[in-house]
Automatic annotation (TrEMBL):
EC top class named in words: lyase
Protein name, entry field: Adenylosuccinate lyase
Domain Fumarate lyase N-terminal: 42-340
Molecular function in Gene Ontology: (S)-2-(5-amino-1-(5-phospho-D-ribosyl)imidazole-4-carboxamido) succinate lyase (fumarate-forming) activity; N6-(1,2-dicarboxyethyl)AMP AMP-lyase (fumarate-forming) activity
Ligase as UniProt keyword: no
Pathway linked to the protein: Purine metabolism; IMP biosynthesis via de novo pathway; 5-amino-1-(5-phospho-D-ribosyl)imidazole-4-carboxamide from 5-amino-1-(5-phospho-D-ribosyl)imidazole-4-carboxylate: step 2/2; Purine metabolism; AMP biosynthesis via de novo pathway; AMP from IMP: step 2/2
Pfam families in UniProt: ASL_C (PF08328), Lyase_1 (PF00206)
Domain Adenylosuccinate lyase PurB C-terminal span(s) in chain numbering: 359-473
BP term (GO), one: 'de novo' IMP biosynthetic process
Species, as recorded: Polaromonas naphthalenivorans (strain CJ2)
EC number of this enzyme: 4.3.2.2
Functional note: Catalyzes two reactions in de novo purine nucleotide biosynthesis. Catalyzes the breakdown of 5-aminoimidazole- (N-succinylocarboxamide) ribotide (SAICAR or 2-[5-amino-1-(5-phospho-beta-D-ribosyl)imidazole-4-carboxamido]succinate) to 5-aminoimidazole-4-carboxamide ribotide (AICAR or 5-amino-1-(5-phospho-beta-D-ribosyl)imidazole-4-carboxamide) and fumarate, and of adenylosuccinate (ADS or N(6)-(1,2-dicarboxyethyl)-AMP) to adenosine monophosphate (AMP) and fumarate.
Length: 483
C-alpha cells in the first residue's frame, strides 16, 4: 500500500494530483514515522479523514463557503443574493471535497507559501465559467484574517471527531464494561487494599465503579461548547467596519458561527478574542479526554493484575503467539497496548491544554504547529479505546481461582465479627480480633471458636457462623446491577 505525498519539488504534477516525492524510499505504512499512519493505519481509518491535513483543508473550504454565502444574504447593494444554482454548486464544493481537491490546494500553496490563501485561490478558481460567482469573487475571504478560518475549521474538526469517532469508541468501552458489571454482579472477589487481603467485593461491583467514573467524564467531553470567532485581525471587526460602518458585524458573525450546518457552522460564538480564539475550550476538552484516559489507565492496570493472579483467563485466538520462546504464554497485550497509548495521548493532550491558551500579545505562531497534532493525540486515545474493547471481549472469568482466593482468606471476617461485637458493647472487640488474625493464617475453626465464646445474642452468633468470605460482600451485587 503506497500513499501519495505532496512534495514541493514535484513541478510536473497535474492539477489536483499529488505525486510521490522524489526520494529513494516512497512513503507507505511500512516506513511511516508515526505508528498511527504505519502499524495502526487501518485502525484509525475513521479519524484520518477528519483530523488529517486533508480534513483541515476540507473544513477551511467549508468555513470560507459559509461566510461567502452569508455575505450574499446580508443585503449589501454590492453583493446580491446568490441564485439557488450557485448556492447548490458552492455547497457541493464542500460536500464533494476530495483528496484531489486537497492536492490542488497544496499545489497552489507552493506559490503562495500560505495555506489559507491557497484555499481562497482554489475556491476562486472554481468560479471560472460561472459569471455570477466570478463577479462576486472578491467576497471570498472578505475582511477575514487567516485565524478566522483556522479556528473555526479546527472547531469543526474537533466537533466531527468527537461526535463520529471519540465518543462512539468510548461508548463501546463503557457499554462493554456495563455488560460485564451486570453479568458478574454476584460473583464474589477478594479485595486487596495496599495489595493485602481486604473485605470482599464482587467482580461486577469493581467494574461498575469504573463505569460510573467514565459516564461522568464522558458527559463532560460531550458537553463542552466548541467555540469559534470570526472578528478580524485582532478581534475588533476593524476591516469589517471600514467597509460597512453601520452594519452589525458582531450579530452577523454570531449568525454564521451558530447557524446549523450546512449554511452555518453549528458552533458557539466567541465574542472576545485577540487574533486567535483563546483556546480555553480546547484546554477544557483535552483535559476532559485526558481525565477519561487516566481512569482507563487505572482500569487497564487493574485488569492486567487480575489476569496475572488468574481471576480472568483470556480467550485464545488461533495462530496467535504469546512469546517467541515460551509457548505457554497468553499475555494481556491489549491492556498493555491500551495503557501505553493512553499515556502517549495524555502527554500530548496535557501539553496542548497548558500551551494553547497562552499567546504573546495579540498572537504568536506557537499554537499553529501544536494544533496540527490534535489528531495525533486523539488518535492514540482512540487506538487505546479499541484495544480495551478487544481485550475486554477476550476475558473469561476464572471462578475457581476467585473461589480459592476467598477460601484462603478467612481473616477478612475479622471486620464483621468485631463490628457485631461493638454493637453489643463487647469490650476490646478490635483488639481481640487483631490478636487472632493479624499476620496469621486464619482457619474457619479459629473464628468459629471465638464467635461461640462471645456474649452476644444467639441470632447474631448464628449469622456470624454462617458467614464466609464469599458471602461477606455487603451491597456489592445490588450496586453493580444498578449501574
Amino acid at each position: 500500500m503506497k500513499i501519495a505525498v505532496f512534495h514541493p519539488l514535484n513541478r510536473r504534477q497535474a492539477p489536483g494530483q499529488c505525486r510521490l516525492q522524489s526520494h529513494p524510499m516512497s512513503f507507505s505504512p511500512i516506513n511511516a514515522l508515526s505508528p498511527l499512519d504505519g502499524r495502526y493505519v487501518a485502525k484509525l481509518a475513521t479519524l484520518r479523514p477528519l483530523m488529517s491535513e486533508q480534513g483541515y483543508m476540507h473544513r477551511r473550504v467549508q468555513v470560507e463557503i459559509a461566510w461567502f454565502i452569508a455575505l450574499s444574504d446580508a443585503k449589501f447593494a454590492e453583493f446580491k443574493p446568490l441564485s439557488p444554482g450557485a448556492r447548490t454548486y458552492l455547497l457541493g464544493l464542500v460536500k464533494n471535497f476530495s483528496e484531489a481537491d486537497a492536492c490542488a490546494i497544496k499545489t497552489i500553496e507552493k506559490t503562495t507559501n500560505h495555506d489559507v490563501k491557497a484555499v481562497e485561490y482554489w475556491i476562486k478558481s472554481k468560479f471560472e465559467a460561472r459569471p455570477e460567482l466570478q463577479a462576486a469573487s472578491e467576497f471570498v475571504h472578505f475582511a477575514c484574517t487567516s485565524e478566522d478560518i483556522n479556528n473555526t475549521s479546527q472547531a469543526l474538526q474537533l466537533k466531527s471527531s468527537r461526535e463520529q469517532v471519540v465518543l462512539p469508541a468510548l461508548d463501546k468501552v463503557i457499554d462493554k464494561l456495563r455488560q460485564l458489571a451486570h453479568a458478574h454482579a454476584d460473583v464474589p472477589m477478594l479485595s486487596r487494599t495496599h495489595g493485602q487481603t481486604a473485605s470482599p467485593t464482587t467482580v461486577g461491583k469493581e467494574i461498575a465503579n469504573v463505569v460510573v467514573r467514565l459516564v461522568n467524564t464522558r458527559e463532560k467531553i460531550a458537553g463542552i461548547k466548541l467555540m469559534a470567532k470570526m472578528n478580524g485581525a485582532v478581534g475588533n471587526f476593524n476591516a469589517h467596519l471600514a467597509a460597512w460602518p453601520d452594519f452589525d458585524w458582531e450579530a452577523f458573525s454570531r449568525h454564521v458561527i451558530e447557524t446549523p450546518e450546512p449554511l452555518g457552522l453549528g458552533l458557539t460564538f466567541q465574542p472576545y478574542s485577540i487574533q486567535i480564539e483563546p483556546h480555553d475550550y480546547m484546554a477544557e476538552l483535552f483535559d476532559a479526554v485526558a481525565r477519561t484516559n487516566t481512569i482507563l489507565i487505572d482500569l487497564a492496570r487493574d485488569i492486567w493484575g487480575y489476569v496475572s493472579v488468574g481471576y480472568f483467563k483470556q480467550r485464545l485466538k488461533e495462530g496467535e503467539i504469546g512469546s517467541s520462546t515460551m509457548p505457554h504464554k497468553v499475555n494481556p497485550i491489549d491492556f498493555e497496548n491500551a495503557e501505553g497509548n493512553l499515556g502517549l495521548a495524555n502527554a500530548l493532550l496535557r501539553h496542548m491544554s497548558e500551551k494553547l491558551p497562552i499567546s504573546r500579545w495579540q498572537r504568536d505562531l506557537t499554537d499553529s504547529t501544536v494544533l496540527r497534532n490534535m489528531g495525533v493525540a486523539l488518535g492514540y486515545a482512540v487506538l487505546a479505546y479499541n484495544s480495551l474493547c478487544i481485550g475486554l471481549n477476550k476475558l473469561e472469568l476464572n471462578n475457581e481461582a476467585l473461589a480459592d482466593d476467598l477460601d484462603n482468606s478467612w481473616e477478612v471476617l475479622a471486620e464483621p465479627i468485631q463490628t457485631v461485637m461493638r454493637r453489643y458493647a463487647v469490650a476490646g472487640a478490635y483488639e481481640k480480633l487483631k490478636e487472632v488474625t493479624r499476620g496469621k493464617t486464619v482457619r474457619p475453626e479459629d473464628l468459629h471458636g471465638l464467635i461461640r465464646s462471645l456474649e452476644i445474642p444467639d441470632a447474631a452468633k448464628e449469622r456470624l457462623l454462617a458467614m464466609t468470605p464469599g458471602s461477606y460482600v455487603g451491597m456489592a451485587a445490588e450496586l453493580a446491577k444498578r449501574v
